[in-house]
UniProtKB/TrEMBL annotation:
<dbReference type="InterPro" id="IPR005123">
    <property type="entry name" value="Oxoglu/Fe-dep_dioxygenase_dom"/>
</dbReference>
<dbReference type="InterPro" id="IPR027443">
    <property type="entry name" value="IPNS-like_sf"/>
</dbReference>
<dbReference type="InterPro" id="IPR050231">
    <property type="entry name" value="Iron_ascorbate_oxido_reductase"/>
</dbReference>
<feature type="domain" description="Fe2OG dioxygenase">
    <location>
        <begin position="19"/>
        <end position="119"/>
    </location>
</feature>
<dbReference type="InterPro" id="IPR044861">
    <property type="entry name" value="IPNS-like_FE2OG_OXY"/>
</dbReference>
<protein>
    <recommendedName>
        <fullName>Fe2OG dioxygenase domain-containing protein</fullName>
    </recommendedName>
</protein>
<dbReference type="Pfam" id="PF03171">
    <property type="entry name" value="2OG-FeII_Oxy"/>
</dbReference>
Amino acid sequence: MILESFGLEKYMDELIDSTNYQLRVMRYEKPKTKDSTHALAAHCDNNTMTLLYQNEVNGLQIQSKDGEWINMKPSPNSFIVLIGESLSVWLNGRLPSPSHRVMMKGNEDRYSLGLFTRPRGGYVIKVPNELVDDNNPILFKPHDHEEFLKFYYSEITQAAVKPGGYISRLKAYCSV
């Protein structure tokens, strides 16, 4: 649907063929305090896309453009779709990857099921020519996601993250 909305259907097979999938069950233990606590620090997913399904215990928060944290309260039979930074880069920044976190409060564990899609090693993420023109200059250099992950997990990059803050290492890595 995303590719269709940008008129990029011809890239569908390429993206499907270049994608790995990981299904993960996540458990966030109930807080040992009555105060709201961080269960997962603020971040943007560096993958292509994430589909989340959670139990009835809320906790996911999405950061708005003005910096406010918004509590997500999905209906029991819905999925949450998060655009990853890799797709944001592929789309030349046209869809942002939302910063999100998990804040826990209460007496119950939180469970969620995540389907993570990520580019396969060797696939070069490159902005399609259709998304570049005089009004929309290219924002990102082509890059291999596997090479980016080496950079992402390097000691130098880890040291660059400020406590309590989030920086987009992918955008730092491949911005023009």
